[in-house]
Specification:
Belongs to the TatC family. By secondary structure, the protein is mainly alpha-helical. The chain has 9 helices and no strands.
Length: about 240
């Protein structure tokens, strides 16, 4: 449907229905694909356990974990389609410049989200898991529940996926004229402190060096965003000088 075309409420509802059905279909297909490869998926997700065994306490816990992994995996696989249809539905209310900024941000947003989740799963989660287990193993025997293990893994990896959106969000805000590199450079120390506080709260670490190691990728993303915005501003200034010449 054309973005500049005025639509009635009935047409809006029809478009919403179409996008919901299409998105749900893609999500279910993704969930089915994950379910068909469930054994491989669970083995991959259990690598950080280093041989430890997961338990369940209720008769339906095994089914719950299977459905949970299938649904979350389906959402991840369907994410590009879901994002596109959400934006395609709400974007007609934006200006042409805002549309351009939003749609050009979709591919890097998806890439950064997947990269953040992979970092969380492969690098961050094993460190956090060993820390939590190490705290209690001195006087307690751990009995890890499958439902809690996978829920915690999903929460942590999704959090890192969101953290990796920092550069994209900052660049998008700059393109919309909301933030400037000069202000960001002047207040970067507050940004660093905020990163340490947020990461330290969401992801407890055993020592300061581990916390620094976890925060470092986020800080690098934040710092790279500042310089990307700075270079974008310089390019824009040169274009304006040429136009005025």
């Amino acid at each position: 449907m054309g973005m500049d075309k005025k639509m009635s409420i009935t047409e809006h509802l029809g478009e919403l229905r179409y996008r919901l059905i299409f998105s749900l279909t893609v999500l279910l297909m993704g969930a089915l694909l994950v379910y068909l490869n469930m054994d491989k998926m669970i083995r991959w997700l259990m690598v950080p356990l280093d041989g430890k065994i997961l338990h369940f306490t209720g008769p339906a816990d095994g089914l719950f974990v299977t459905v949970q992994i299938a649904v979350v995996g389906g959402i991840i696989l369907a994410l590009p389609v879901l994002i596109y249809h959400v934006l395609a539905f709400i974007i007609p209310g934006c200006t042409r410049h805002e549309r351009k900024v939003v749609f050009s941000s979709i591919p890097p947003a998806i890439f950064l989200f997947f990269l953040g989740m992979l970092f969380g799963k492969q690098k961050l989660f094993p460190v956090v898991l060993q820390f939590f287990l190490g705290v209690g193993e001195a006087y307690l025997n751990p009995m890890l529940l499958g439902s809690k293990y996978f829920s915690f893994l999903v929460m942590l990896t999704f959090t890192m996926g969101l953290f990796f959106q920092i550069p994209l969000i900052m660049v998008a805000l700059s393109r919309l004229g909301i933030i400037r590199s000069t202000k960001l450079r002047a207040t970067r120390m507050y940004g660093y402190i905020s990163i340490f506080m947020v990461v330290g709260t969401l992801v407890p670490s055993p020592d300061f060096l581990t916390l620094v190691g976890i925060c470092l990728p986020v800080i690098l993303l934040y710092e790279s965003s500042i310089w990307i915005i700075y270079l974008m501003e310089k390019v824009q200034e040169k274009k304006e000088k040429i136009n005025y010449a």
